[in-house]
Design goal:
- The protein has 243 residues and is α/β, with parallel strands linked by helices.
- The chain contains eight helices and seven strands; from the N terminus they run ααββαβαβαβαβαβα.
- The protein has a seven-stranded mixed β-sheet, sandwiched between helices.
- α5 packs parallel to α6.
- It is globular, with a radius of gyration of 18 Å.
- The two termini are 29 Å apart.
- The model has no long low-confidence stretch (mean pLDDT 91).
């Protein structure tokens, strides 16, 4: 019986998401088309879109460690990816205007891809050339002072492990651009929308920020590996501490 009502709630949430997208989509898209810094306005409407959807579906966000964020500094935000809810929470908990890596399959969703595509870097994670090109685009964004969001596990974690092994691209990029890494421990999203499922229930998602991790000065193979492992250990410790 509970699952039946969960299906009803999920259908309602999906319909509401796309209705809100249709209402605010042009207000997100037009500023991006007419001015290089139009994303400042676009993010106001994106946060309204996701904030209204979250409120009306009973999803709440609790953010800790926001004082670690310098709004005048670009970051590479990294987070643990366990749920399909991870993507919509980003504009609600990240105060910067950001660009995020998105899997190429999302670029095929009508309307959604048009609205969100200007704020995402699509990547085919099975294609090394696509991954390389996506990192080049992120490099250019960081040079413009625009923060980026990356899930370094490379895919959603559907295992019982705290974290999957990290791919090194984001950490090599941090070293090359001397951009600090800012870790987000996302806790509870996989309880509201379980791993590998689209069924949704109301509840609270907690996000914990760490202090920024400063990359080493040079990008030798050993330093990239050590910095990657250091960041992974920090995020893993945050998850184990707060879960």
């Amino acid at each position: 019986m509970f699952k039946f009502f969960q299906w009803i709630h999920t259908a309602y949430a999906a319909l509401l998401f796309f209705v809100l997208m249709l209402l605010v989509g042009l207000f997100v898209l037009i500023p991006l088309l007419i001015h290089p810094r139009g994303d400042v306005i676009s993010f106001v409407f994106i946060r309204f879109w996701v904030g209204a959807w979250s409120f009306l579906t009973g999803i709440r966000y609790e953010v800790h460690g926001r004082e670690s964020i310098n709004l005048n500094q670009a970051y590479i935000y990294i987070f643990n990816h366990r749920s399909n809810l991870d993507a919509p929470l980003i504009p609600m908990v990240v105060p910067h205007r950001v660009r995020a890596i998105g899997k190429k399959e999302l670029a095929k969703i009508p309307i959604f891809a048009t609205v969100v595509g200007k704020l995402a870097v699509w990547v085919d994670r099975t294609n090394p050339l696509s991954r390389h090109k996506s990192l080049e685009k992120l490099n250019l964004l960081l040079q413009k002072g625009i923060s980026v969001v990356v899930a370094p596990e490379g895919t959603r974690n559907n295992t019982d492990q705290t974290l999957l092994p990290f791919q090194k691209g984001a950490f090599r990029l941090a070293i090359e651009t001397q951009t600090p890494i800012l870790m987000m421990a996302v806790i509870g999203a996989d309880q509201l929308m379980k791993r590998g499922s689209w069924l949704l229930k109301p509840g609270k998602i907690r996000v914990y920020y760490s202090k920024p991790m400063i990359p080493p000065a040079t990008s030798s193979k050993n330093e990239v590996e050590e910095f990657t492992e250091k960041c992974r250990n920090r995020l893993e410790a945050m998850l184990l501490t707060h879960e």
